[in-house]
Amino acid sequence: MIRFLHSADLHLGKPYGSMPEEVRGRLREARHSVLDRLAARAREGGAPVILLAGDVFDTETPSPAVLRQALAVMAHHGDLRWILLPGNHDSLVAEELWAGAARAAPANVTLALTPSPLAFAPGAMLLPAPCTTRRPGRDLTAWMNQASTAEGVVRIGLAHGPVQTFSEDGTADDVIAADRAAQAGLDYLALGDWHGQISIGGRTWYSGTPEPDRFKHDAPGRALRVTVAGAGAPPLVEPVETGLFTWRTAPLQCLPEDDVAMSLAGLLPEGPGRRQTLLRIAATGHARPEARALLEQSIAAAAPEFAALELDTQRLAITCESEDLDLIDRSGALRQAADGLLAESRDPDRPPADRDVAREALMRLFSYCAALPS
């Protein structure tokens, strides 16, 4: 009976440069403290080993403090074994990183730096495929097909990379074969790289990141507790939550007659959980300028209660008539500017990007005038 916790993509040391300084610090600390939460989830499930399938560090040159503090936390959880695989962000090209890690690693930390069978547990072998570079140009798991292990031994693969390409030509040499587990006779293939949790067949899983760092996947931070009863047995895979922060995108469909403030209020979570929430409101449909401005004001009013609250209006069309422009001014320079921007935003001879710029400029003018005392 083999039990372990599968995680990946911790990206320790991620700077979060686009966030305000206060939020950056909180997000960096959440990534560091996820090591303690992974240890807790492992103990709860009786899993003595934690597999980290690549991108433990965000770059190939993390600061000495990031490296040493991570290893110190792992050493603190000395009853657990940690196995670290180089990913595309912290590949083997980072010789100084992995040499430093090898010098400072406590006894309960194993660095999977070579593609060769590694003793995992009694009756089980680990077959790691460390990333040689950021873009290795070949399927690094191919060697697992020929890897020899004793009969009846549980075979666990550990790798980092995509199982499909997102390139325009649909080809890439470093894509991991989606059926690698079947080809190599693996009882479980633990993958990193994709930050969302997903299964590819019953024996191949991406664990997802344990602490989200973007809006893309719209899911909480998770890891996987895995149990393999024996060679050939299907793995029992249990998702467990590990994240402190929630990153979520909420769609807001708008119509010109809608009360956008009320619609927005219905999307915002209540209570102290707002402080741990990064929320993007994705507005779509159509809105009058006054409603759009009210939506922006409502977002700004609620934002201080959230870790982050932002409004995405890329797919929100502005329905503007002459009476809307009366709210800017009925005559004079401001009205002339508004009329000109409205005409540009509707001009079919202008490129779409230029029409979008004119529309946004009109909205800025409207918001500015709406904020002026009457």
Q: How would you name the CATH homologous superfamily of the largest domain?
A: Metallo-dependent phosphatases
How many alpha or pi helices? 9
- How many domain units? 2
Uncertain runs: 166-171
**Mind summarizing the main beta sheet?**
6 strands, mixed
How far apart the termini lie comes to 75 Å
Q: Give helix and strand order, one letter per element, not per position.
A: EHEHEHEEEEHEEEEEEHEHEHHH
**Percent range of helical residues:** 25-40%
> How many beta-strand elements?
15
Overall pLDDT confidence = 91
Apparent shape: elongated
Question: What is the CA-atom radius of gyration, in angstroms?
Answer: 26 Å
What topology emerges from the helices and strands here?
Elements: E1 2-7, H1 21-44, E2 49-52, H2 64-76, E3 81-84, H3 95-104, E4 109-111, E5 118-121, E6 124-129, E7 154-160, H4 180-183, E8 188-192, E9 198-199, E10 204-206, E11 222-228, E12 236-241, E13 246-254, H5 260-267, E14 277-287, H6 289-302, E15 308-318, H7 322-325, H8 332-346, H9 352-371
Parallel strand pairs: 1-2, 2-3, 3-4, 6-7, 7-8, 8-10, 13-14, 14-15
Antiparallel strand pairs: 1-11, 5-6, 9-10, 11-12
Helix pairs in contact: 1-2, 6-9, 8-9
